[in-house]
Design goal:
Elements lengths: L2 H9 L4 E5 L3 H13 L3 E5 L2 H8 L6 E5 L7 H9 L9 E5 L4 H10 L3 E4 L4 H16 L7
Parallel strand pairs: 1-2, 1-3, 3-4, 4-5
Length: 143
């Protein structure tokens, strides 16, 4: 992360959303949804990249792809939950998996919600607002 990026984070503390997805086109779509909703977007292309960013910033929410090479989203989630700073940060899985087993596996790993791909931008934004509001104890959004 460049020095300029840290200035953006410092100026927008509390609005940072980290998305982890190995597909550049998915990260681009997520970035549009996140920034249009008024948040600051940071993207990582792998679990390894995610941990490099997490060492330097604490996001308000993490969007995590399930299917990634080297380390899947479930394993990334488990490792993120070991960090005391991230215990209460909402983690939302973005996935094409629709099975009950996938949902159970994700929740057991420490995830808070599942958003199916391809996602609707408006629904993604509503979920972002909901989980961030719930985290800080503000008005809850109903979907």
């Amino acid at each position: 992360m460049a020095a300029q990026d840290f200035k953006v984070v410092a100026a927008n503390k509390g609005k940072l959303i980290l998305a982890v997805d190995d597909a550049p086109e998915s990260l681009s779509l997520i970035e549009v949804a996140v920034t249009d909703a008024g948040y600051v977007f940071f993207g990582a292309a792998s679990g390894k990249d995610c941990f490099g960013l997490i060492d330097r910033v604490t996001p308000k929410l993490i969007l995590l792809d399930v299917e990634m090479p080297e380390m899947d989203g479930f394993e990334v989630c488990k490792r993120l939950r070991l960090d005391q700073r991230l215990k209460h940060v909402p983690i939302l899985f973005l996935t094409a998996h629709k099975t009950v087993d996938a949902v159970r596996h994700g929740m057991a790993a420490g995830g808070n919600d599942f958003i199916l791909k391809p996602f609707d931008v408006g629904k993604l934004q509503a979920r972002l607002h909901h989980w961030i509001a719930q985290r800080v104890g503000l008005v809850r959004y109903r979907l």
